[in-house]
Amino acid sequence: MVSANGLNDLEFVSLADVAKDDIITLMNTPAVGRHLPLLTTEFSKEDCRAFLAAKQALWDIHGYGPWAFVIGGRFAGWGGLQPEQWDADFALVLHPDFWGWGRRILDRVLARAFGEMGLPEITILLPPGRENAKAVLRLGFKETAPREVGGKTFRRFRLMRP
User: What pTM was computed for the model?
Assistant: First the structure.
């Protein structure tokens, strides 16, 4: 595990700047896959190409989308804000070696969302199998109506700009 000794080790970069093999490895890591109910088969090179094109389209159409996270020079995962119907939704997919960095990443995303982007609120969708929402609630998110995505019902939480 990489130590979480400060934000200086954390970089937000374009997903296009990450080796496709690193993204494929992350998405096929069993501990990660357990938290991705929409990923039901092995994540292939073709899936990766389509994934990268879809994430770039979010940036092109909406002016924001997910980043790749690099910690200590290593690809740690991806996430950030992405449009989800009418919401700016926070997504976070980290390799288990970087679990524990989520709060630091969220803090940086919130600073951008509520600062330079001027968003009034953001949401988080928790997958169906993730029952424990204590951490999200401790951060000030409030549970709202669930949202269906890809035939799965996700718990939805909303955080208003302070």
Answer: 0.89
